[in-house]
Input
Amino acid sequence: MREADRKRIDAAAAYAADLCMYAGEDQAFYDAFWSGLMHHTDLLREFIFYMERGELVCRAQIAGVTVADVLVWQIDHFKAAMDRDRGGLDRDREKMVLYAFDRMTKLAEDPARYREGLLAETGTDYPGKYGGL
Output
């Protein structure tokens, strides 16, 4: 591995640790999250791209799903909860990105389970309102 690549991976590990700490997650969450990224290099590259530029490139797809798709799904759930006047949901950008990448690592491990959840749980006022992803 080139030294520049190793430095980028080390920076991404530190960034992931910072995001986890900011989100109030523990070491076990970080370990599972980082392991998932390291096992799926396409997601790791996407995570590094986000870390360096603050935007998503959406090249990594798992079962036809991108990180942006997961973010939209999360926002849909947030809006639905607001419609039901349930406070306490976090709409912080960095936390949402962390959880979107985390969901992508889980999707990579069990595509059928997590893709179905993304399609079935739209967060809208009735299932299937927008036809899933």
